[in-house]
Amino acid sequence: MTFKELNLKDDILSAIELLGYEQPTPVQEKVIPFMLEQSTDLVALAQTGTGKTAAFGLPVLNMVDTSRKQIQALVLAPTRELCIQIANDLTNYSKHMQQLRIVAVYGGEDIRRQLKQLDQTPQIIVATPGRLIDLVERGKIDLGTIRFLVLDEADEMLNMGFKEDIETILERTPDTRRTTLFSATMPKEIANIAKRYMKNYEEITVGVRNSGAENVEHIYYVSHARQRYLVLKRIVDLNPDIYGIVFCRTRMETKEVADHLMQDGYNADALHGDLSQAQRDSVMQKFRQKNIQLLVATDVAARGLDVNDLTHVINYNLPDDIEIYTHRSGRTGRVNKKGVSVSIIHSKEKFKVKDLERMIKRTLNNNKFRTDLKFVKSSFSL
Ligand code: AMP
Questions:
Q1: Which residues pair with 221 in a beta bridge?
Q2: What is the mean predicted confidence (pLDDT) over 306-310?
């Protein structure tokens, strides 16, 4: 199938062609015609990396009336990072649509700039739930004209405690709105929201969770605890074009590993909870722009980071929870790209590899470095 066959406007087709999208991804093939041709609500089970932003973004852009200066579409997302990402993607897709305005509003940033951006009414708002409600209560956003409501990563929004905010928003938008809900998983709470607030909705599932994992090669190296850092360096040396995240367990470990990498001349930086919001933003921005090749991070700190085209995910330690492993490795091997998930494990942890293989239904290859690449004895231990 081609994008042309999806009946999108020429303005949009030319923009996605410029972005190099050749053909729709499976989620796009299903969701775009549905949103353009049907009038009912939709629950789509798809995870990040499947091209879901364009799946809801392109039809919404196609249907927005740019001659009217009213808020017509609202996209809710769990984090500021994701909001920025979605707004950027939509801006790219609508590059040739004159008169279209998109504004992203999210918590953790001075509200004054966002208030100013809202002075000229946009047709599309991308928002985190809390900040949106704040702006509605200040009379700055009118939800009464919304025609399309998209809940993106709905399961994440619930995990982050946004349930009441989402319900408030659903109640304040017109009943005539069309609602599209995206979620990677279908916990009971999501089903409840769909039942309560969505009309005759259809459910579409695109592949299984972590289907992106098809493109991911899983590798592990066995190492003594003290040589972990040297194994990491070796992995990086073998992959000079690496663009990846090194996941650590603690802030302390994150700092230490990043410091050592930087001292050793690698293009790395750390992302963890001890940094201020401004510092985190700056690191994430640099990483997103590929000015940093290796981001050393904790799972929590990396949560808001929406970077799609990692070449490698490195598990400096195996996480205790296998779910976390799938989350981490799901950050690589996205749309039509190969990725590698590398784990550095202790010999005592070999049993965990079996559990992992069972869970992800894939084999983890045990790679070894060539014997002529013996490690130099390390003067420090991590
Ligand atoms: P998403 O799941 O929306 O986060 O998208 C994941 C990545 O895939 C983003 O970097 C998109 O720019 C890219 N992408 C989305 N749709 C396509 C497509 N049809 N062809 C190639 N890349 C795409």
A1: 344
A2: 79
